[in-house]
Amino acid sequence: MTPERFRAIVDAYGAEARHWPEAERAAASAWAAHNRIEADTLLAQAAQLDAWLSTDAVAAPDSGLTERVVASAPKRRQSRWFSLTWPGRRSRRAGLWWSGAAFAGVGLIGGLAGAFAVSFFLVTGNPSPGPESSYLTTGFGGTAADWSGE
Hints:
Blueprint: H1 3-13, H2 22-34, H3 36-54, H4 63-72, H5 92-124
């Protein structure tokens, strides 16, 4: 422990050794025991400052101040995204309901289209005609028959 470090500890944490950093407490106490005159001078100055700081008290704010602060807070603006509700009514919950209904409607339409395609296949017995798959044709437009036997 150096005199500069002891001074820094006392300046930062005060004269009470229990407030000093635990890792340096033993070393600072040992330095103070070996350098009694210098340590007592520093600790006396710190004790005066500690006593002066302990007399400070903060009064609780009155209720009028609290009410004025709350009243002066900005009002919450509502997003246009959530204002898609019935005319004259605006709420976030209704906006979420509409977006959820739209998502469910898209899913229902997709399910109906799939059901229609499957029922068409079952009624006709043949899949709907479509372009030939690319793996069945060659670059020349013919089928990919194995001609190795010819």
